Amino acid sequence: LRTADFAELTPAEAREAAAMLAALKPRLPLRPSRRYRVGRRGTRLAARPMLRRSLGAGAEAVVFRFWQRRTRERPIVLVCDISGSMERYSRFLLRFAHALSRSGAPVDVFVFGTRLTRITRELRVRDPDAALQRVAVKVVDWSGGTRIGASLHELNRRWVRRTVRSGAVVIVVSDGWERDDPAQLAREMATLSRSCHRLIWLDPLAGRPGFKPATQGLLAALPYVDDFLPCASVASLAALAERFVRPFNRTPRPTDP
Fold it and tell me: What structural domains and CATH numbers belong to the chain?
Protein backbone atom coordinates (compact mmCIF):
# COMPACT_ATOMS: atom_id res chain seq x y z
CA LEU A 1 0.00 0.00 0.00
CA ARG A 2 2.89 2.39 0.66
CA THR A 3 3.88 2.30 -3.01
CA ALA A 4 0.35 2.25 -4.49
CA ASP A 5 -0.74 5.22 -6.61
CA PHE A 6 -3.24 7.38 -4.72
CA ALA A 7 -5.45 7.52 -7.82
CA GLU A 8 -5.92 3.74 -7.79
CA LEU A 9 -6.83 3.20 -4.13
CA THR A 10 -10.15 1.82 -2.96
CA PRO A 11 -12.03 3.85 -0.31
CA ALA A 12 -10.73 1.53 2.43
CA GLU A 13 -7.16 1.76 1.12
CA ALA A 14 -7.48 5.54 0.87
CA ARG A 15 -8.38 5.73 4.57
CA GLU A 16 -5.38 3.57 5.44
CA ALA A 17 -3.07 5.70 3.28
CA ALA A 18 -4.43 8.85 4.96
CA ALA A 19 -3.57 7.34 8.36
CA MET A 20 -0.04 6.57 7.13
CA LEU A 21 0.42 10.16 6.00
CA ALA A 22 -0.85 11.47 9.34
CA ALA A 23 1.75 9.30 11.11
CA LEU A 24 4.70 10.58 9.05
CA LYS A 25 7.46 12.28 11.01
CA PRO A 26 9.43 14.13 8.32
CA ARG A 27 13.15 14.73 8.75
CA LEU A 28 13.36 18.46 8.40
CA PRO A 29 15.90 20.48 6.42
CA LEU A 30 18.41 22.26 8.65
CA ARG A 31 20.54 25.35 8.26
CA PRO A 32 23.45 26.74 10.29
CA SER A 33 22.52 29.21 13.00
CA ARG A 34 24.53 32.28 13.95
CA ARG A 35 24.86 30.87 17.45
CA TYR A 36 27.41 28.36 18.72
CA ARG A 37 27.49 25.64 21.34
CA VAL A 38 30.29 23.66 22.97
CA GLY A 39 30.86 20.14 21.68
CA ARG A 40 33.43 17.38 21.43
CA ARG A 41 34.29 17.93 17.77
CA GLY A 42 35.26 20.92 15.71
CA THR A 43 38.18 23.07 14.62
CA ARG A 44 37.91 26.05 17.04
CA LEU A 45 38.94 25.33 20.61
CA ALA A 46 36.47 26.54 23.24
CA ALA A 47 39.23 27.70 25.60
CA ARG A 48 37.17 29.42 28.31
CA PRO A 49 34.55 26.66 28.67
CA MET A 50 37.39 24.11 28.77
CA LEU A 51 39.13 26.03 31.56
CA ARG A 52 35.94 26.49 33.59
CA ARG A 53 35.10 22.80 33.28
CA SER A 54 38.60 21.76 34.29
CA LEU A 55 38.77 24.10 37.32
CA GLY A 56 35.26 23.25 38.44
CA ALA A 57 35.97 19.53 38.45
CA GLY A 58 39.38 19.94 40.02
CA ALA A 59 40.84 17.85 37.24
CA GLU A 60 44.41 18.06 36.10
CA ALA A 61 43.76 16.60 32.66
CA VAL A 62 42.18 18.95 30.15
CA VAL A 63 39.13 17.66 28.30
CA PHE A 64 39.15 19.26 24.88
CA ARG A 65 36.00 21.08 23.80
CA PHE A 66 35.26 22.93 20.56
CA TRP A 67 32.85 25.55 19.31
CA GLN A 68 30.16 24.02 17.09
CA ARG A 69 27.62 25.98 15.12
CA ARG A 70 24.04 25.36 16.15
CA THR A 71 21.48 24.34 13.54
CA ARG A 72 17.81 25.18 13.15
CA GLU A 73 15.03 24.10 10.82
CA ARG A 74 14.76 25.76 7.46
CA PRO A 75 11.39 27.34 6.66
CA ILE A 76 9.27 25.26 4.28
CA VAL A 77 6.77 26.79 1.86
CA LEU A 78 4.42 24.30 0.17
CA VAL A 79 2.33 25.46 -2.81
CA CYS A 80 -0.18 22.82 -3.94
CA ASP A 81 -2.28 22.62 -7.12
CA ILE A 82 -5.93 21.73 -6.35
CA SER A 83 -7.29 22.05 -9.90
CA GLY A 84 -9.38 19.43 -11.67
CA SER A 85 -6.42 17.52 -13.10
CA MET A 86 -4.97 17.12 -9.59
CA GLU A 87 -8.25 16.11 -7.92
CA ARG A 88 -7.25 12.47 -7.31
CA TYR A 89 -4.09 13.57 -5.48
CA SER A 90 -4.64 16.96 -3.84
CA ARG A 91 -6.38 15.76 -0.65
CA PHE A 92 -3.61 13.24 0.04
CA LEU A 93 -1.04 15.96 -0.54
CA LEU A 94 -2.82 18.24 1.90
CA ARG A 95 -2.62 15.48 4.51
CA PHE A 96 1.13 15.43 3.90
CA ALA A 97 1.11 19.22 4.29
CA HIS A 98 -0.69 18.77 7.61
CA ALA A 99 2.01 16.33 8.77
CA LEU A 100 4.66 18.91 7.84
CA SER A 101 2.76 21.62 9.70
CA ARG A 102 2.61 19.46 12.83
CA SER A 103 6.34 18.63 12.68
CA GLY A 104 7.44 21.78 14.49
CA ALA A 105 9.16 23.35 11.49
CA PRO A 106 8.23 26.86 10.30
CA VAL A 107 5.82 25.84 7.51
CA ASP A 108 3.58 27.95 5.27
CA VAL A 109 1.07 26.24 2.97
CA PHE A 110 -0.76 27.67 -0.04
CA VAL A 111 -3.15 26.09 -2.53
CA PHE A 112 -4.15 27.28 -5.97
CA GLY A 113 -6.47 26.52 -8.84
CA THR A 114 -7.36 29.82 -10.44
CA ARG A 115 -6.24 31.85 -7.40
CA LEU A 116 -3.75 31.56 -4.54
CA THR A 117 -5.08 30.87 -1.02
CA ARG A 118 -3.01 30.66 2.15
CA ILE A 119 -4.15 27.80 4.43
CA THR A 120 -1.36 27.83 7.03
CA ARG A 121 -3.66 28.66 9.93
CA GLU A 122 -6.26 26.05 8.98
CA LEU A 123 -3.66 23.28 8.97
CA ARG A 124 -2.54 24.07 12.52
CA VAL A 125 -5.57 22.18 13.86
CA ARG A 126 -4.32 18.98 15.45
CA ASP A 127 -6.85 16.59 13.89
CA PRO A 128 -6.16 16.15 10.13
CA ASP A 129 -9.82 15.60 9.22
CA ALA A 130 -10.88 18.75 11.06
CA ALA A 131 -8.01 20.67 9.45
CA LEU A 132 -9.05 19.61 5.95
CA GLN A 133 -12.66 20.54 6.69
CA ARG A 134 -11.50 24.06 7.55
CA VAL A 135 -9.48 24.19 4.34
CA ALA A 136 -12.53 23.06 2.33
CA VAL A 137 -14.56 25.93 3.78
CA LYS A 138 -11.92 28.56 3.00
CA VAL A 139 -10.90 27.49 -0.51
CA VAL A 140 -13.36 28.36 -3.30
CA ASP A 141 -11.62 27.07 -6.43
CA TRP A 142 -11.42 23.29 -5.89
CA SER A 143 -11.25 21.08 -9.00
CA GLY A 144 -11.48 23.91 -11.51
CA GLY A 145 -9.00 25.47 -13.93
CA THR A 146 -5.30 26.09 -13.37
CA ARG A 147 -3.44 29.40 -13.38
CA ILE A 148 0.01 28.47 -12.09
CA GLY A 149 1.84 31.54 -13.34
CA ALA A 150 -0.73 33.96 -11.93
CA SER A 151 -0.75 32.14 -8.60
CA LEU A 152 3.05 32.23 -8.32
CA HIS A 153 2.96 35.90 -9.28
CA GLU A 154 0.70 36.49 -6.28
CA LEU A 155 3.09 34.48 -4.09
CA ASN A 156 6.09 36.50 -5.29
CA ARG A 157 4.31 39.85 -5.07
CA ARG A 158 2.47 39.50 -1.78
CA TRP A 159 4.04 36.72 0.26
CA VAL A 160 7.66 36.16 -0.72
CA ARG A 161 9.13 38.59 1.84
CA ARG A 162 6.87 37.31 4.61
CA THR A 163 7.13 33.56 4.08
CA VAL A 164 9.81 32.51 1.59
CA ARG A 165 12.94 34.39 2.70
CA SER A 166 16.38 33.42 1.44
CA GLY A 167 16.73 30.28 3.52
CA ALA A 168 13.43 28.60 2.70
CA VAL A 169 12.80 25.35 0.86
CA VAL A 170 9.89 25.92 -1.54
CA ILE A 171 7.86 22.94 -2.80
CA VAL A 172 5.50 23.39 -5.76
CA VAL A 173 3.09 20.50 -6.34
CA SER A 174 1.45 20.35 -9.77
CA ASP A 175 1.15 18.31 -12.95
CA GLY A 176 2.00 21.43 -14.95
CA TRP A 177 -1.27 21.95 -16.81
CA GLU A 178 -1.36 25.72 -17.31
CA ARG A 179 -4.28 27.72 -18.71
CA ASP A 180 -2.33 30.95 -19.20
CA ASP A 181 0.83 31.89 -21.08
CA PRO A 182 3.69 29.58 -19.96
CA ALA A 183 6.11 32.50 -20.38
CA GLN A 184 4.59 34.09 -17.28
CA LEU A 185 5.13 30.85 -15.37
CA ALA A 186 8.79 30.82 -16.44
CA ARG A 187 9.25 34.42 -15.23
CA GLU A 188 7.66 33.70 -11.86
CA MET A 189 9.67 30.51 -11.39
CA ALA A 190 12.86 32.47 -12.11
CA THR A 191 11.90 35.03 -9.45
CA LEU A 192 10.96 32.36 -6.93
CA SER A 193 14.18 30.43 -7.55
CA ARG A 194 16.26 33.51 -6.72
CA SER A 195 14.29 34.10 -3.53
CA CYS A 196 14.66 30.69 -1.89
CA HIS A 197 17.39 28.27 -0.87
CA ARG A 198 15.96 25.34 -2.80
CA LEU A 199 13.06 24.90 -5.22
CA ILE A 200 11.42 21.46 -5.49
CA TRP A 201 8.67 20.50 -7.95
CA LEU A 202 6.48 17.49 -7.20
CA ASP A 203 4.42 15.89 -9.97
CA PRO A 204 2.21 12.85 -9.24
CA LEU A 205 2.84 11.55 -12.77
CA ALA A 206 6.63 11.75 -12.55
CA GLY A 207 7.09 8.25 -11.13
CA ARG A 208 5.26 6.45 -13.92
CA PRO A 209 7.31 4.27 -16.30
CA GLY A 210 8.35 6.15 -19.41
CA PHE A 211 7.19 9.52 -18.09
CA LYS A 212 8.59 12.56 -19.88
CA PRO A 213 7.62 16.18 -19.14
CA ALA A 214 5.28 17.26 -21.91
CA THR A 215 2.93 19.98 -20.65
CA GLN A 216 3.86 23.54 -21.56
CA GLY A 217 3.73 24.63 -17.94
CA LEU A 218 6.11 21.92 -16.81
CA LEU A 219 8.55 22.59 -19.63
CA ALA A 220 8.55 26.29 -18.70
CA ALA A 221 9.14 25.59 -15.00
CA LEU A 222 11.76 22.85 -15.00
CA PRO A 223 14.82 24.99 -15.88
CA TYR A 224 14.41 26.71 -12.49
CA VAL A 225 13.83 23.58 -10.40
CA ASP A 226 16.45 21.94 -8.16
CA ASP A 227 14.60 18.64 -7.68
CA PHE A 228 11.80 17.13 -9.79
CA LEU A 229 10.17 14.27 -7.88
CA PRO A 230 7.06 12.06 -7.84
CA CYS A 231 4.39 12.41 -5.15
CA ALA A 232 1.73 9.81 -6.02
CA SER A 233 2.19 7.46 -3.06
CA VAL A 234 2.93 7.35 0.65
CA ALA A 235 6.41 6.03 -0.13
CA SER A 236 7.25 8.90 -2.50
CA LEU A 237 6.17 11.52 0.03
CA ALA A 238 8.09 9.78 2.82
CA ALA A 239 11.17 9.77 0.57
CA LEU A 240 10.84 13.51 0.00
CA ALA A 241 12.08 14.20 3.53
CA GLU A 242 15.29 12.32 2.72
CA ARG A 243 15.95 14.92 0.03
CA PHE A 244 15.63 17.64 2.63
CA VAL A 245 18.67 16.48 4.57
CA ARG A 246 21.06 15.67 1.72
CA PRO A 247 23.98 18.03 1.07
CA PHE A 248 22.98 20.44 -1.64
CA ASN A 249 24.79 22.79 -3.98
CA ARG A 250 22.70 25.11 -6.11
CA THR A 251 23.24 24.65 -9.83
CA PRO A 252 23.58 27.70 -12.11
CA ARG A 253 20.23 29.19 -13.13
CA PRO A 254 19.35 30.36 -16.64
CA THR A 255 18.69 34.05 -17.11
CA ASP A 256 15.15 35.37 -16.99
CA PRO A 257 13.04 34.52 -20.05
Answer: 6-29+74-244 (3.40.50.410), 33-71 (no CATH)
